[in-house]
Structures are given as structure tokens and as C-alpha cells.
UniProtKB/TrEMBL annotation:
InterPro entries: AMP-dep_synth/lig_dom
Source organism superkingdom: Bacteria
Domain named AMP-dependent synthetase/ligase: residues: 11-302
Organism: Pseudomonas asgharzadehiana
Protein name: AMP-binding protein
One Pfam family here: AMP-binding
């Protein structure tokens, strides 16, 4: 039984090494990494961070959208026993940064780099616009390397894994995340055959609790869209079986459909309204599914969806009615409100 997230990664690499663990898009082409390759990548990054002075007493601060590089570097820091703080790059993080004064930082791009004051090591993903990309302590993610192997993987389950600053600070240990992952896997019957889409920003505790930890524990495939702007297209290509969303993200899809409906009064609009209404007639349900609901699920990239998850506030009534008509009923999992999450944060699930 793994005690930390990196140990869960190593277990998957040992038992399912050749299976695909991660897929991400680059220039419109899907790239894949197996569990063995992923463990090797994380080990090399851990060695590079260790060589630059990161230890178990440190914290790596990440300002990035959901990108595979951010995930791998987070696991590399946790490999060394360090904790990881995740900040939303779309927010003004200067107050948090001034308070924490981080020594080790991963910044996605110039906008994120400009928020950083003092630092010891600053790793960037996109160096476009940087005036001094080779300044002391500043290094491109692609240039991270080490001339020695990584130390042994940390094993302390009570160690802090993630810190989130979206509203009230939330701290999650490895033990909490893995216990929660086991609960979610059991309740939602997750298997290694799931296809999950990581389209939410990383700086949310729900992402770590309901996606990253279950991914590492169950061994399913995690997919990253090329960018936020392409997530809908990428979701249609993938046809994920597991989707994690918020009230806002589900509402955005419902609004996207509403804006593209045929004009009221037309035959197509009347057909849509007819097919989306509940009915006791099995014939009408069958016709409505094949004429409207199934094609609509294909357009949304939800035709294979088996496990829709919702974190945070419940769906708005209009969105709930829309997705309910499509047969999509997101399992609602509450975000924790206290500074320290409960031992099993999944026990508050509601239907």
C-alpha cells in the first residue's frame, strides 16, 4: 500500500509499467507517456530539484494552468518530501507571494514570472518575453537535469502534500489524499480503464482530491487539453469516461448549447424541446435519445461519460435540468472549508 503520491506512481510503474498513464496535446498531436516513462521523468526531475537544494523541509510554489509539466514537477518535489503550493495564474497572487516569499517556484509564463519577487530557484515553462532568461536562479523547465540519481522516495504519509489558497487556505497530506482516493474509487467504481480529462486549473483542492490522487491510485489515463481554448474540442476527441467540473464549468456547457439552439418556433427547436422533456413513453424516450440527446452528447464530448463529478456548490436548477435530461447526473463532492481538511474529506458526498 503506497503511503505517498509518488509511491503510488512507483507502484503503478511496477505493476502496469507499459500502460498509458498520461496523454497531452502539443501542436494538435496527442503525446503519450507510460507509467514507467512517467516514473522515470519524475525521478529525473526530483534529482534536478535535489541538486538545486530542494529538500523535505521546503515548499515548491507553482503558478500554472493544468499542464503536465506542473504535475510532474509537483510529484518530483513530493518525491523529496517537500510540499507544493498551487496558485491560480488568472488571479492576482502578489499578496500571497509577499507573505510566503517562496524560494522555489514554477511559473508558467511571463505574466506569472512578473508576480514573483525574491526567489532562490525560478523555473519557467514559457520563456517568451523574458528579458534575462539565463539570470541567476532562473531556469527553463526543459533544461532541468542532474548528474546524479534522485534520492530514495519519501515515505511519510502524514507529510503535507498540497497547500491551496483559493479563499480559505486548505492543506492536504498524502494520507488524506490517498484515503480520499480509495473512498472515491470504491463509491464510483473507478477502474484502470477510465479516461479522465484534466481541464480545471490546478489551484483547486478538488483537482488533487478527486482527480490526481484517484488517478495515481487506480491507474487510469489522465488527459490534458492543449489549452483552455481547446478543451471542448479535445474533450470531443477523447470522449472521456470521467469528468470533474464545477457549477461554473457545467453551466458553461449548458449555456454553450443554449446559444446554439435553433430559433423558437422552428421544427428543429420544437423537436429539441420534445426530446428533452421527461416522458413515461419508452418509444418517445428511444426516439428522443437517437434524434437529439445522443447527438448532443457527442457534440459535448460526453457520449462515453460514466462518472461525472461536481465539486463546490450544486448545479443551478437550469443546468441540473439540462444535464438530467441528457442522463448526466454529477456526483456532488463538497470542497473542505477549514484550513486543515478532514481525514476523509469524501465522507460529505451528497447525491
Amino acid at each position: 500500500m503506497p503511503h505517498t503520491l509518488p509511491q503510488a506512481l512507483l507502484r503503478q510503474a511496477h505493476t502496469r509499467g507499459s500502460a498509458v498513464a498520461l496523454r497531452y496535446k502539443r501542436l494538435g498531436i496527442w503525446q503519450v507517456r507510460t507509467w514507467s516513462e512517467l516514473a522515470g521523468d519524475v525521478g529525473e526531475l526530483a534529482a534536478a530539484l535535489h541538486q538545486r537544494g530542494l529538500s523535505g523541509n521546503d515548499n515548491l510554489l507553482i503558478i500554472s494552468q493544468a499542464r503536465p509539466e506542473a504535475l510532474l514537477l509537483a510529484l518530483a518535489a513530493q518525491w523529496l518530501g517537500a510540499s507544493v503550493t498551487l496558485l491560480d495564474p488568472e488571479h492576482d497572487n502578489r499578496a500571497v507571494l509577499a507573505e510566503r516569499r517562496p524560494s522555489f517556484v514554477l511559473a508558467e509564463d511571463l505574466q506569472a514570472v512578473q508576480q514573483i519577487g525574491e526567489y532562490r530557484v525560478l523555473i519557467y515553462l514559457d520563456g517568451r518575453g523574458l528579458n534575462h532568461p539565463h539570470a541567476a536562479g532562473l531556469i527553463a523547465y526543459a533544461d532541468l537535469s542532474a548528474n546524479a540519481p534522485a534520492p530514495a522516495c519519501a515515505t511519510q504519509s502524514s507529510a503535507l502534500a498540497f497547500v491551496f489558497h483559493a479563499g480559505t487556505p486548505v492543506q492536504l497530506s498524502h494520507a488524506q489524499l490517498l484515503a480520499g482516493a480509495r473512498t472515491l474509487i470504491a463509491r464510483e467504481h473507478l477502474t484502470s480503464d477510465e479516461e479522465a480529462l484534466a481541464a480545471r486549473v490546478f489551484a483547486a483542492s478538488g483537482q488533487a482530491r478527486y482527480l490526481l490522487a484517484p488517478w495515481l491510485h487506480a491507474g487510469f489515463r489522465l488527459n490534458f487539453p492543449e489549452a483552455l481554448a481547446t478543451r471542448d474540442t479535445d474533450r470531443r476527441e477523447l470522449g472521456p469516461t470521467l469528468v470533474l467540473g464545477t457549477r461554473e464549468s457545467y453551466g458553461r456547457l449548458e449555456q454553450w448549447v443554449a446559444e446554439r439552439l435553433p430559433l423558437p418556433g422552428t421544427f428543429s427547436h420544437r423537436l429539441y424541446r420534445w426530446a428533452m422533456q421527461p416522458t413515461p413513453s419508452p418509444v418517445r424516450r428511444w426516439l428522443g435519445r437517437w434524434l437529439v440527446r445522443r447527438p448532443l452528447l457527442d457534440v459535448l464530448g460526453m457520449s462515453r461519460l460514466r462518472v461525472p463529478l461536481l465539486v463546490g456548490p450544486p448545479l443551478a436548477p437550469r443546468s441540473a435540468a439540462f444535464f438530467g435530461a441528457l442522463g448526466v447526473h454529477p456526483g456532488h463532492w463538497h470542497e473542505p472549508s477549514p484550513r486543515h481538511a478532514p481525514t476523509d474529506p469524501l465522507l460529505s458526498r451528497t447525491a
